[in-house]
Design a protein that fits this description.
By secondary structure, the protein is mainly alpha-helical. The protein has four helices and no strands. This is Putative membrane protein.
Amino acid sequence: MSLFVLVLVVALIFLVADAVMLPKVIKPLFARHLGAALLDRPRPLPAALFYVLYLFGMIWFAGWPALQSGAPVMALVHGAILGGVAYGTYELVSWTVMRDWHPSMVAADMAWGTGLTAVACWCGVMVALALG
């Protein structure tokens, strides 16, 4: 039951927050620098694959170990590390090889991914522990 609650809460927080942040902040920032290279709408299949894969990583590397240890702060720290590595890998490689990739895109997306991953994992563990 605790694992189910953890997965549900982490997924809900991550998906809702991303659904708000991406169109309001990230897409306009990326559009300003990438222009016509950016799709009008994201491709559903790769987006779904990303979310399934990334949510699995959030649970496996941050949420579940912290829940088993009864240590929500572990979820926060491990989530931040995972978010920084995952989003950092994408952003820094893109900045390295893409002509119009801008440092402001790197900073915004890395901060968002790091913070959101950490908070979603922490909240998931807190709720799962509270509901026992």
